[in-house]
Automatic annotation (TrEMBL):
Family of this protein: Belongs to the YajC family.
Protein name: Preprotein translocase subunit YajC
Main location: membrane
InterPro entries (alphabetical): Preprotein_translocase_YajC
Transmembrane portions of the chain: 12-35
Keywords tagged on the record: Cell membrane, Membrane, Protein transport, Translocation, Transmembrane, Transmembrane helix, Transport
Organism ancestry: Bacteria, Bacillati, Bacillota, Bacilli, Bacillales
Membrane topology according to the record: Single-pass membrane protein
Pfam families in the cross-refs: YajC (PF02699)
Subcellular location: Cell membrane
SMART domains assigned: YajC
Keyword Amino-acid biosynthesis set for record: no
Length: 105
């Protein structure tokens, strides 16, 4: 009777590990395929938004192209043509091209 109880106890611990292992493996796959790349994109976007300055060319998420004429912590004013200036949230900027990289070309 004692041998049966110890065999059942040791077999139960092994089955728990076997049960948990696929979930750990799935989490690892999700982390490396979905979560980590998304975090990397968010860091790149945050650094791009922080690096913007006056004179940079910017494209909004709506596709509007313009040049930054004023910038604060949360607002960006873009000059679209000679007289039109539009105000956007800083988070509405999709891409930014630095003015210094344009002059280097």
């Amino acid at each position: 009777m004692y041998q049966f109880a110890t065999a059942a106890a040791s077999g139960g611990a092994g089955s728990i590990v076997q049960l948990i292992w696929p979930f750990v493996l799935m989490f690892a796959i999700f982390y490396f395929l979905l979560i980590r790349p998304q975090q990397k994109k968010q860091k790149q976007r945050a650094s791009m938004l922080n690096a913007m300055k006056k004179g940079d060319k910017a494209v909004t998420i709506g596709g509007l192209h313009g040049t930054i004429v004023e910038i604060t912590d949360d607002i960006v004013v873009l000059r679209v043509n000679d007289v039109t200036k539009l105000t956007f949230d800083r988070s509405a900027i999709s891409t930014s091209i630095s003015h210094s990289t344009e002059s280097a070309e």
